[in-house]
């Protein structure tokens, strides 16, 4: 590849991929927000999770041979 083709490809790549922001730092300090999330009370368990647990227990009660399969996938 000669110099002319190299310059042309470089120019096309620069047009296709504009430069990123000059300052990649966030505009504010994110640590206080992280501390608030860590100190917040955990959310309650949704009803769908309880339905899945109930279905799993029902399946184990009806099909005890499935216990090794479930333990394998844990």
């Amino acid at each position: 590849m000669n110099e002319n083709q190299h310059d042309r490809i470089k120019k096309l790549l620069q047009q296709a991929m504009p430069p990123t922001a000059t300052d990649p730092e966030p505009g504010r300090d994110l640590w206080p927000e992280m501390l608030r999330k860590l100190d917040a009370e955990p959310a309650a368990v949704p009803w769908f999770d309880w339905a899945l647990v109930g279905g799993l227990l029902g399946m184990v009660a009806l099909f005890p041979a499935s216990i090794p399969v479930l333990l394998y996938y844990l």
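The mean pLDDT is 87. The radius of gyration is 28 Å.
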